[in-house]
């Protein structure tokens, strides 16, 4: 009996010791939860996204690569996204059954069977084929819980103005990564900007800026059906 009690006490001490290591600001969590609630209640959404990402070039120098994305979604199973940038011009169509990737530069495409909801589809396509979907993290219902789990410190640092718009400013850090979030301080409480700094990789950065949010727009289902352009080629790809 005493042995089991000792194990229980040690387990509790370990748990509380780990809990005390985290510094979680309740104001920051309240803002993130509110943002996730607003996004989760949307029936449909459209937005544009400007991103930059640091990459190491052949000379071992850091280069910035830029892209612009147009994204539309209708829950729970419709998505279209076009990404134009330094790495080319491509798009995704998802209709609840199939996901199609199309390259405008090469005029070729691949159509794959996909799960029946957006979040599961994104996870599946990323794990199987390394497809990356713009700003996907914010649309996960577990967004706040994931931040709490992955970071040691989450702080609300007051208000900042981004492009003339007042925003809540939140920072989350662990030993490897610094994430900074700006969330609009208005009735919609939507993401405005995100910066990820990889402290363990020469402070390389990823930055995403949201513009032109449209909430609950009317989007015809036909928009999410892919029609192959003239002379385009159907290709196959290998899983990772």
Question: Would you write up a description of this structure?
Answer:
- This protein is of the alpha+beta class.
- 23% of the residues lie in helices and 43% in strands.
- It is built from four helices and 13 strands.
- The protein has helices spanning 2-21, 26-40, 118-129, 143-150, and strands spanning 23-24, 44-56, 62-74, 78-85, 88-94, 98-103, 108-113, 153-162, 165-173, 177-184, 191-198, 204-215, 233-234.
- The protein has a 13-stranded mixed beta sheet.
- A hairpin with a 3-residue loop joins strand 5 and strand 6.
- The protein is globular and about 55 Å long.
- Residues 1-19 have low confidence and may be disordered.
Layout: helices, strands, pairs:
Elements: H1 2-21, E1 23-24, H2 26-40, E2 44-56, E3 62-74, E4 78-85, E5 88-94, E6 98-103, E7 108-113, H3 118-129, H4 143-150, E8 153-162, E9 165-173, E10 177-184, E11 191-198, E12 204-215, E13 233-234
Parallel strand pairs: 1-8, 7-13
Antiparallel strand pairs: 2-3, 2-12, 3-4, 4-5, 5-6, 6-7, 8-9, 9-10, 10-11, 11-12
The Rg value, from CA coordinates, equals 21 Å
The strand count comes to 13
Please describe the biggest sheet, giving its number of strands, its sense, and whether it closes into a barrel: 13 strands, mixed
Shape: globular
Cα distance spanning the termini: 51 Å
In spatial order, strands of the major sheet run: 1-8-9-10-11-12-2-3-4-5-6-7-13
The residue fraction in helices comes out at: 10-25%
Q: Which H/E pattern describes the elements? A: HEHEEEEEEHHEEEEEE
Structure classification: alpha+beta
Mean pLDDT reading: 91
List low-confidence stretches: 1-19
* Number of discrete helical segments: 4
How much of the sequence is in beta strands?
35-45%
């Amino acid at each position: 009996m005493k042995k089991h009690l000792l194990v229980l006490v040690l387990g509790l001490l370990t748990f509380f010791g780990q809990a005390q290591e985290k510094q979680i600001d309740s104001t920051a969590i309240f803002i993130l939860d509110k943002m996730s609630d607003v996004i989760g209640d949307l029936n449909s959404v459209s937005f544009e996204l400007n991103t930059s990402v640091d990459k190491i070039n052949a000379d071992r120098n850091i280069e910035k690569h830029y892209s612009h994305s147009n994204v539309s979604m209708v829950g729970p199973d419709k998505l279209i996204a076009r990404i134009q940038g330094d790495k080319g011009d491509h798009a995704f169509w998802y209709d609840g059954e199939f996901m199609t990737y199309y390259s405008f530069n090469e005029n070729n495409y691949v159509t794959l069977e996909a799960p029946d909801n957006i979040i599961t589809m994104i996870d599946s396509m990323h794990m199987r084929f390394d497809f990356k979907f713009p700003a996907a993290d914010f649309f996960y219902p577990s967004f706040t819980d994931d931040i709490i789990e992955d970071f040691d410190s989450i702080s609300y640092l007051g208000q900042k103005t981004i492009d003339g718009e007042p925003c809540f400013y939140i920072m989350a850090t662990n030993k490897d990564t610094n994430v900074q979030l700006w969330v609009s301080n208005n009735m919609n409480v939507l993401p405005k900007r995100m910066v990820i700094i990889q402290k363990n990789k020469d402070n390389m950065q990823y930055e995403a800026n949201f513009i032109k949010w449209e909430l609950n727009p009317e989007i015809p289902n036909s928009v999410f059906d892919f029609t192959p352009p003239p002379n385009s080629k159907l290709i196959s790809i290998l899983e990772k």
